[in-house]
Amino acid sequence: MSAERKTNGAERLCDTLIAQGVDTCFANPGTSEMHFVGALDRRPEMRCVLGLFEGVVTGAADGYARMAEKPAATLLHLGPGLANGLANLHNAKRARTPLINVVGDHATHHLRHEAPLASDIDGLARPMSNWLGRATRPDEVGPLAAAAWRAAVSTPGVATLVLPGDAAWNAAAPVPIVPLARDAPKAVDAAKIRAIARAVATGGRTVFLVGGRALRADVLPLVAAIAERTGAEFVAETFNARIERGTGRIAIGKLPYGVDDAVRHLAGAKRVVLIDARPPVGFFAYPGKPSELQDPAASLYRLVEPDEDLAEALALLAEGVGAEHRPRTATAPGPAPAPGFRPDDLPKGPLTAQSTCAIVAALLPEEAIVCDESISAGATFFETSYGGARHDYLQITGGSIGIGLPLGTGAAVACPGRRVVCLQADGSAMYTIQALWTQARERLDVTTVILSNRRYAILEHEMRNVGILQYGENARRMLRFDDPPLDWVALAGGHGVEAARAETGEALADLLRAANARKGPFLIEAAI
């Protein structure tokens, strides 16, 4: 669009984002952002979604972009508001999610007075941002917003734009706002790809570690064809931004989370080829255990960088090894998937973590979006859902818990008409429970299944991992929250979401069938 009159910096920001196709803003604003709120009010083409906590805002923007494949904007209030949202910006950065993170600041002339909310916003934002810009004048806002969009979609990642109050409220000179084109992916190093093809063809065990863009349904068949041609194995990273899976699609396993299990999985591999993946390292350090998970004698090859052309790289690799076909379906070598359950033959009786996962997997709606922050209790869901309905599978990527409910919220905003199923641990759900209110307000089609074991079971597991096998009441009180127990039906109802509790497989199945067939959000507390 073209600006024919003088507008202020906040309006210029809105117009620039809209021109680039950014039509959703997840927000929790404050005083310094009121001119941006006013500008959004005059632009109905920008959907504004309120989150009652900044971690909901940033997590929802992550979920939105993973499914919409374009960035949303956030709107956060000064340094403390940004700090509240940093945990899920960390997850977004690890997921390589395109996201335009707008943070308001005091007016430039007010900063020197060290007002109570003054802080080093740039310093807070820098570790979680691939790009950081600060406007000092209203005429800078439009160009910086365009630069933020380009940075967010090119690498991709989090681009943070700091907007001081006077840069928002003062007038900006009229200039045309022209839609930009995305930067084309960088060309790959063909000589490097040919060298990888020769190495893979020399014999010995090869493992393709697959992540990022390579986990989509239109890309995985070529990975499978290359693996079939060369005798290589292929496995996904442990935590992934998005996998397209289910009946008729490539069934790819995941590298185990546990260090010992992952080391065993990769033992004896002569080479590990990273296909849009990161090198395999332990999530944590443990006494006497390695940080790098591949065999010490293995060679590590990186096929492509995040900003390079993955399709070109895979085509060159396929050509180099003589892989010319794309099998419709294949199963990655590795541990056999656990048996699934037919919808008419589901586990009955008191719920366990395993039976809950089996029932949720068997009753997934077609083309569902699964947001999995089940941590330890949902460990069997991935295996039991291999042959289930087609779905997109979104995970926590950076280990910063509190992503699940916001992730599902953003995914539902991005994909109206598709049911979102959140498989959610009870402990991590409490970090961003306010997302339930946003789901209710926006009438989002989300089914949340709370795996309610009233403990941080992952931490009990980690105590054993670090060698602490016996501990007393002081430690137990930091690992459990069963006194008093959380009442998820009441908590959901207080946020405007209808809810019910299931203690048996029969009850869970009945509730899931009803929840997945209805409009709007519904929460099920699965007592395990």
Write the layout of secondary structure elements.
Blueprint (H helix, E strand, L loop, with lengths): L6 E2 H11 L4 E4 L6 H8 L5 E4 L3 H15 L4 E5 H18 L3 E7 L15 H5 L5 E4 L3 H17 L3 E7 H5 L1 E2 L17 H11 L5 E5 L9 H11 L2 E4 L6 E3 L13 H8 L4 E5 L23 E4 L7 H12 L31 H10 L5 E6 L7 H4 L6 E5 L8 H11 L5 E6 H4 L5 H7 L4 E7 L4 H9 L7 H7 L8 H7 L3 E5 L2 H13 L4 E6 L1
Parallel strand pairs: 2-3, 2-4, 4-5, 5-7, 6-7, 9-10, 9-12, 12-13, 14-15, 14-16, 16-17, 17-19, 18-19
Antiparallel strand pairs: 1-8, 11-15
Biggest β-sheet: strands ordered side by side in the sheet: 11-15-14-16-17-19-18
What's the CATH C level of the largest domain? Alpha Beta
User: Whole-number radius of gyration?
Assistant: 24 Å
> What is the averaged pLDDT score?
94
CATH architecture of the largest domain: 3-Layer(aba) Sandwich
Molecular structure report:
- Helix 9 (about 220-230) packs parallel to helix 11.
- Residues about 330-340 have low confidence and may be disordered.
- This protein has a seven-stranded mixed β-sheet with strand order 11-15-14-16-17-19-18, sandwiched between helices. A six-stranded parallel β-sheet has the order 3-2-4-5-7-6, with helices on both faces. Strands 10-9-12-13 form a four-stranded parallel β-sheet, covered by helices on one side.
- With about 525 residues, it is an alpha/beta fold.
- The chain has 20 helices and 19 strands.
- The chain has three domains: about 5-170, Rossmann fold, CATH 3.40.50.970; about 190-320, Rossmann fold, CATH 3.40.50; about 355-525, Thiamin diphosphate (ThDP)-binding fold, Pyr/PP domains (Rossmann fold, 3-Layer(aba) Sandwich).
- The chain has helices at about 10-20, 35-40, 55-70, 80-95, 120-125, 140-155, 165-170, 190-200, 220-230, 260-265, 310-320, 355-360, 380-385, 405-415, 425-430, 435-440, 455-465, 475-480, 490-495, 505-515; strands spanning about 5-10, 25, 45-50, 75, 100-105, 130-135, 160-165, 170, 205-210, 235, 245, 270-275, 300, 370-375, 390-395, 420-425, 445-450, 500, 520-525.
